[in-house]
Structure formats: structure tokens, C-alpha cells
Write a structure and sequence with these properties.
187 residues, alpha+beta, nine-stranded antiparallel sheet, 1 helix, 9 strands, 16% helix
Length: 187
């Protein structure tokens, strides 16, 4: 008799566990927002187009260059609206000339939002003598801003500044470092 009670109790506990797990999974998939800017690895079977030696240009409605991407290889997933670029060079334009250049190991372009994420060995040259390095970077097309939560090393030619959590407004040409800031003059 006691074995039957224990078996019923186990069955009831198991049923409650399955019910709670199902509700939890349903809640997470339906109600929580999905982050579009999180890096996504596209499985090989989901690649719609793969290209070598890529040159991609983004223009405004008047056909003025906003930015361009150069990459050794790229692939595109239409379902997810994502293009992956490998060994990337990204140039942002102000008029006819590039205002600054970014390079990195990998880039992801969301073809719907036009946001770009770079990862791995990021180097940015804003003008001669002024550059910074970091490990990841996000370009927000709507705000026309690049940012990172990673460590950043800025080199001004006269000073090396290190910090964490950086943003750069491309329109206002204003750079902000927000945490753990240290500076060292050279010479």
C-alpha cells in the first residue's frame, strides 16, 4: 500500500514538474523580447548565398555613400535577414571621403535594421594619429553610433587612454568612455 502511495506521489511531482517546465518554455518563447543584435551563428544549410571577395556599398536615397564593407568571404541568410562577413573592412563616409575605417575578424549585418556588429581584433582609425582597438563593436544605424561594452584602448598620438564601455556618435563626432578610464601620456 505504501509503494502505491509513493508511486502516486512521484507521478504527481513529475506531472507538476512537466507542467511548470512547459509553462516556463512557453512564456520565454512568446512573451520575452528577442534581441536582434545578438550574434547568430548561421548553420551551413541555412546559407542562401555565399560570396568571396565582397564589396558592399550602402547609400542614402540620393545615392551618396554612407558606408561600405570589404570582406574576404560573406554569406547571407534570407530567413534571418543576416549577412556574415569574414576578415572585414568597414568604411564610414562623410562626404566623398571615408571619415573612419574599422577592421575586424567577423562582421554581421542585419539587412532589415542595417545594424552591423563586428567581432574579433577590432581596429578603428578615425584620422591620422587617432585610433582605437577593442574586441567587439556595434553600429546602430538608427542612431548613427558605434558602441562597445568591451575594453577599449585609444591612441591619440600623444596619449594612450584605456577604458570600458565606449560610444562614438558619428554625426556629432563625439566619443565617450564610461568606465575604468586610465590615461598615459607618451614621451
Amino acid at each position: 500500500m505504501e509503494k502505491i502511495k509513493n508511486l502516486k506521489l512521484f507521478g504527481l511531482i513529475f506531472f507538476v514538474f512537466v507542467l511548470i517546465s512547459t509553462i516556463y518554455i512557453f512564456f520565454h518563447r512568446i512573451f520575452l523580447p528577442h534581441h536582434e543584435n545578438v550574434p547568430v551563428k548561421i548553420p551551413v544549410e541555412k546559407i542562401d548565398i555565399a560570396i568571396k571577395n565582397v564589396h558592399y556599398i550602402e547609400t542614402d536615397k540620393n545615392f551618396v555613400k554612407k558606408w561600405e564593407i570589404w570582406a574576404d568571404n560573406a554569406n547571407y541568410n534570407k530567413e534571418r535577414n543576416l549577412s556574415n562577413f569574414f576578415n572585414v573592412k568597414l568604411l564610414f563616409f562623410s562626404g566623398k571621403e571615408p571619415s573612419f575605417t574599422l577592421t575586424g575578424d567577423k562582421g554581421i549585418l542585419n539587412t532589415r535594421t542595417r545594424n552591423i556588429e563586428l567581432a574579433g581584433n577590432i581596429k578603428c582609425t578615425i584620422r591620422k594619429g587617432f585610433s582605437f582597438t577593442t574586441n567587439s563593436l556595434l553600429y546602430n544605424a538608427e542612431n548613427h553610433e558605434i558602441s562597445t561594452r568591451d575594453r577599449v584602448t585609444l591612441n591619440t598620438g600623444r596619449m594612450v587612454i584605456k577604458g570600458k564601455i565606449m560610444s562614438y556618435d558619428l554625426t556629432k563626432k563625439k566619443l565617450k568612455l564610461k568606465k575604468e578610464i586610465n590615461a598615459k601620456t607618451s614621451g
